[in-house]
Amino acid sequence: MATDITLLWASGSHACWRVMIALEEKNLQGYNQKQLYFEKGEHKSKEVLEINPRGQLPAFKCGDLPLNESCAACFHLECKYKSQGTKLIPDCEEGRALILQRVFEVNALAEKSSSVLYYNWRVPEGERHDSAVKRNKEALTAELKLWEGYLQASSGFIVGKNFSLADVIVYPAVAYLFQNGLSEQRYPKLAEYYKGLMNRPSIKASWPPTWKNAPKQETLKDI
Amino acid sequence: MAKLMSLLWGAGSPPCWRVMITLEEKKLQGYKRKLLSFEKGEHKSQEVLEVNPRGQLPAFKHGDIILNESCATCLYLENQFKSQGIKLIPDSAEDQAVMYQRMMEGLALTDKLNSVIYYDCSVPEEERHDSAVKRNKEALTAELKLWEGYLENVSAGSYLAGAFSLADVIVFPSIACAFRFGLSVGRYPKLAKYYSLLKNRASIKTTWPPHWVASPQGYDILKDL
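ok -> structure tokens follow
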């Protein structure tokens, strides 16, 4: 039941966005939700810490069950609501294996993106090094080439011919890159994937509100 | 079935160990395997890159299916071989949810452990800072306290998500690593109890890192945490 579900989220957080896409895909609109702001430190508020002792978003509950890890929340929603909405994990062996592989590979993509985008946020001034910035950018470039390769023969989805859990998990990370200025010319397949799913109802409905009127950033334009 | 499976692995690596525990639990012994050496850089060899373009271990194949992310491999094996060996995913959606949550949190635990244990391996000398080492240790301490809390009621048969499950498959190797690197049994009694309850489980004992068996004395990087 959507009314048993609670989500505390922040705009632009890929982890939050994944959960919102999954909720839409499983026809669970009407869940309790509250938008919070990292800039105001609201992710460390008591309200969040009561659900997520790590003080991170999303802070998500299904009934009394906290499920703060976004992949865990998405797996749970697919298992519990298997028979409603979109089927996010197919029955066939090979499709399922590749979906699982891509779901967990996103950690590498997200981590390498964050190490470039949030370098100054994460690393205190006295510890910053140009050599580290350069290395992080090279690692991200290599990672993006892998994903560009995965999308070479794509029919618009990251795995196979249907929207799946892999897209729920991957799409926000990819959208984030383009929002931060990733070059569409240098990464044409990623760009095609990004634009192709932009108007999918679950994605459109949960699009980060702070991106709607904001200009795109340019941090990644030279990657 | 196991004959169609192959695993390239490195000793002491929690992600490799997770896959090996699962293969044992699902009675898939007899898979092809090859031990590679991180110290000799064998994880970056052509043989690995052909299966895992990131040059990381584990690199696992089942026929033509390739699965290099250990959580993906373990989930896949449990789903494919649901009816053999031990059931690693509980039946009820609620118990499953706790399992998934702990599995994913286990990845955060592993990262924080690595940031302390392997600091010198992953950060070039001129970029190292005592302030970063201190911060990483504090983050790891906070993380370990959370797990100490999750295991408040640990006892035989009652682990991270009830009966032994994929949550334990994913997390146990990192806990074992923590004790190998000197974590204090006195300061983390619940984690220590969890460790001692599971270390003799057949699948875990059989796949125990060989060099840990050869030299049981570990290190003490974590002794002051």
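The domain at 93-214 of chain B is CATH 1.20.1050.10 (Glutathione S-transferase Yfyf (Class Pi); Chain A, domain 2).
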